[in-house]
Amino acid sequence: MLNDVEYFRSASPARVAADLVPLVVALCGIILAQICFDDLRTMLEAGAHLGDVLHFVAVTLPSFFPFIFPFALLLSLLFTLNQLHRANELTAMRAAGSDSFG
Fold this sequence. Notes:
Elements: H1 4-9, H2 13-45, H3 50-60, H4 65-86, H5 89-95
Helix pairs in contact: 2-4
């Protein structure tokens, strides 16, 4: 396991992306559950097969990405900044003369 200093030296866009992927997957799962809750009964009553349902989900899910990605990115950035703050890395960057947000 990495100690705090080694962990935050690896804090980069790749680290944010690594935090972003599980959030996107989780949010897609929530959206998938919502799609199934709303439309699955109607599709089954119409006689849709499993392939039809999976095709419907595959076509519908990308329409939610414009809502999922900004939210997931916000959460992953907040998580990363929180971890940097807890290890006083932000204070060290300011002491070294780095601009906080530039």
